Amino acid sequence: MTTARNTTSIANQGxxxxxxxGKYVRLGSGAGDPEExxxxxRGWRKAVIAAAAVTGLVLLINISFAVVTIIKFxxxxxxxxxxxxxxxxxxxxxxxxxxxxNLLGTALLAASSFTMQCLSSPTRSELNDAHxxxxxLEIGIASxxxxxxMRVWKGVLWALLCFSTLPLHLL
Length: 171
Prior knowledge:
The chain is mainly alpha-helical. About 55% of the residues lie in helices and about 5% in strands.
């Protein structure tokens, strides 16, 4: 004996159905947004601006902590003392401060790495120019080789990011 099956499954309802029908757009792609159609800040450029904003925020946080530390805490024999007292409390403060430093450093490294990846990715016109010279470029990976066949400003920015981020990698 056969029974009638409900043809409407849970997967066809709600957000999943919207996703399958293409109503959701990849973050930062700018596709499907008529307001972004003519904007020079769409797609990867918008994401690079967000990465620059993250970097600026990290700078602002670092400057704020430095100013507060200089104003609020004393220096004895060239050593700044934030707190003197219970060892358990000092250990918790130490762990918290190191966690914050690591989070800020990770945010800087992620923003820099993403921007460097975008800068080393060729545009369609750069790819066509390289192909006309019978040179293949690498797509989808961070490639130092690509920088020699792309616009000079991309190489300069990539080098600046590389040399400014390198000390963070080594610390």
